[in-house]
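Quarterly update from the structural biology core.
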Amino acid sequence: RNMSSAGPEGRKKMRECDGLIDSLVYYIQGAIADHEPNDKATENCVCILHNLSYQLEIELPESYAQGIYMQRRNTPNNDKTPGCFGTRSRKVKEKQQDTPLPEEKSNPKGVESLWHSTLIRIYLSLIAKSTRNYTQEASLGALQNLTAGTGPMPFAVARTVVQKANGLPSIRSMLHASHPAVKKTAVSLLRNLSRNTSLQSDIAREVLPDLVSVLPESAPGSDIACETAASICYTLYNLTQSSSHNARLLLSADGLPKIIAISMNDSNMFSKASRAASVLLYSLWSHTDLHNAYKK
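Predicted structure, tokenized:
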């Protein structure tokens, strides 16, 4: 667990170690099957996998990048799209949201397991069943890592979490966790998921009222609370930017007074939360059909 947080070279060596990732996954599967999701060894295994999934898209071996690129090159009307790793273009990002990964292997080995649907479902199971904060946080954090990029892999993982594995209810419950770091990581994961336009209606329907409910009534005090509030505002921004329906949902959940209060933070006008709330307010005002409702 300590070695897995030693930086890019350490992660690379551990990902390449024959049988290591497979053994960690095997152990966690056994712990879940035996109804023992709270033991220390399971926590350690999940924390290692969390660390090994960090910057995975960027650090993947060229052979994997090439395999995904070849798949994309055969996709109609996509001839001019550049390679999928390292790019941050908005047009590329929009196209990649609809680009599938190469067909998933039924028996993944090594690094392939890190983004496989089997492990995604394991993380969601641990989020739902474990009562150990570090295990919950590491499971959420691994999913956050896997959905953090702009290539086809993060969007495929996001679709698996939301649509194939029905992961939103488990993630939503973590928004109400008493442990601040667990809540913060759950919000960061939802922020990543909400970037995928094809999933926004599902996410808004399932978790938008909960996101509003955990927003503070005024400017948050601690750094972690400030970061969490900022992430919630940016998630709401993603969900409402192109959807008047979702903006109305935010309004009916009594989100507007909270967002206004956070944006008007007098103690530090340049805080992350204050800026994020101001960006969200500016975006909400672009829905002209809601102006009368806002004024009321």
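The chain has two domains: 1-64+108-177, 196-295.
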